[in-house]
């Protein structure tokens, strides 16, 4: 496995420098775009990494996998009254579709959907602070690492520049699809986006999705196998903003990206993979990260198809 990773590292290196880091907040705009790291954790706990695989970065929208998991656990299919499970075909922070569709977001991985998921968690756990603590505790549990924390500078900056997300939440509130205070829920949302992890921790934390909902190392059941199937399906169809179809076409694995430059992918029954390379393509997905995952499934044949 390490040979494949080394080969990929070599092959993607000439691409570093293409794409652009996220610029909507200074903390992300100042990241070195030339970094690349890739980590794999197998279901038996063995792991492999190359490049900057232990460099911490802002997980951003990858956090939406964890919050969706908790909301699914809390509400089961009742969740889908408030958020659908269709690809949006629109940019992750688009307001237009939400207006047409009466405040019901297309899926839990676009911003509006993840904000509604956070709202449901604030209701379920009674305060925004408790909701955030539960999300973080869940990440500690599935990564097996209690040192994972929030970057408060990123989180504060997200809030200061969060007008579009405030607009999305307010629009949903106007349609009656929002129970709590908009700003309080957004605090939970921005904090969970601002969690910092490295590729190794991320790949470890996704193993429950590679093993039907049960952490293959601790043997703890985190969700049931039907729920794991649902999450993987949505990662495949909606995990990469409006380029989800292209990612599925090229990589052939369930995955979720974030504008911090991370992408996680799941090989059911076998492993989870995380890549980090902060320069993004025009759809907001890591340019080199996507290429690295495409090379991985091409070289190993380990796609779900
Ligand atoms: N915190 C970011 C936002 O809400 C998440 C962006 C992302 O990774 O998609 O704008």
List keywords for this structure.
three-stranded antiparallel β-sheet, 305 residues, Beta-lactamase, binds glutamic acid
Instruction: Write down the overall geometry.
Output: globular
Give the mean pLDDT: 97
Indicate the structural class: alpha+beta
Biggest sheet, spatial arrangement of strands: 2-1-8-7-6
Instruction: Report the span from N to C terminus.
Output: 20 Å
Structurally, the number of domains stands at: 2
The CATH architecture of the largest domain: 3-Layer(aba) Sandwich
List of distinct ligands in this structure: glutamic acid
Q: Share of helix among residues?
A: 40-55%
Let me know the number of strands.
8
Structure description:
With 305 residues, the protein is α+β, with helices and mostly antiparallel strands. The chain has 2 domains: 2-60 and 197-299, Beta-lactamase; 61-193, Beta-lactamase, CATH 3.40.710. Helices cover 46% and strands 11% of the residues. It has helices at 2-12, 26-29, 63-75, 96-100, 111-125, 128-143, 152-160, 163-174, 182-193, 199-205, 225-238, 244-251, 287-300; strands at 37-42, 47-51, 57-58, 149-150, 195-197, 255-257, 262-267, 271-276. Strand 7 (262-267) and strand 8 form a beta hairpin. The protein is globular and about 55 Å long. The model has no long low-confidence stretch (mean pLDDT 97). Glutamic acid binds at residues 60-61, 92-93, 111, 158, 165, 193, 258-259.
SSE diagram, text form:
Elements lengths: L1 H11 L13 H4 L7 E6 L4 E5 L5 E2 L4 H13 L20 H5 L10 H15 L2 H16 L5 E2 L1 H9 L2 H12 L7 H12 L1 E3 L1 H7 L19 H14 L5 H8 L3 E3 L4 E6 L3 E6 L10 H14 L5
Helix pairs in contact: 1-13, 3-5, 3-11, 5-6, 5-8, 5-9, 6-9, 6-10, 7-9, 11-12
Glutamic acid binds next to loops.
């Amino acid at each position: 496995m390490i040979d494949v990773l080394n080969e990929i590292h070599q092959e993607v290196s000439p691409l570093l420098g293409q794409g652009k880091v996220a610029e909507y907040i200074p903390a992300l705009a100042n990241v070195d775009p030339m970094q690349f790291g890739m980590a794999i954790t197998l279901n038996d706990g063995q792991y492999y990494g190359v490049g900057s695989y232990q460099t911490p970065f802002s997980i951003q929208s990858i956090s939406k996998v964890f919050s969706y998991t908790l909301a699914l656990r809390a509400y089961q299919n009742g969740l889908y009254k408030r958020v659908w499970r269709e690809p949006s075909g629109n940019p992750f922070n688009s307001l237009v579709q939400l207006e047409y569709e009466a405040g019901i977001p297309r899926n839990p991985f676009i911003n509006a959907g993840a904000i509604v998921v956070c709202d449901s968690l604030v209701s379920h756990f009674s305060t925004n602070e408790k909701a955030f603590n539960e999300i973080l505790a869940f990440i500690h549990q599935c990564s097996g690492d209690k040192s994972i924390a929030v970057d408060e500078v990123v989180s504060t900056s997200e809030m200061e520049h969060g007008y579009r997300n405030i607009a999305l939440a307010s629009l949903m509130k106007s349609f009656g699809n929002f129970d709590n205070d908009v700003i309080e829920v957004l605090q939970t949302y921005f904090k969970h986006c601002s969690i910092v992890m490295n590729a190794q921790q991320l790949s470890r934390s996704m193993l429950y999705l590679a093993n039907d909902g049960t952490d293959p190392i601790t043997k703890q059941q985190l969700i049931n196998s039907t729920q794991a199937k649902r999450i993987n399906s949505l990662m495949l169809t909606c995990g990469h903003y409006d380029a989800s179809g292209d990612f599925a076409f090229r990589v052939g694995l369930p995955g979720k990206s974030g504008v911090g430059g991370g992408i996680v992918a799941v090989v059911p029954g076998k492993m989870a993979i995380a890549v980090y390379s902060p320069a993004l393509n025009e759809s907001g997905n890591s340019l080199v990260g996507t290429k690295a995952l495409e090379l991985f499934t091409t070289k190993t044949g380990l796609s779900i198809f």
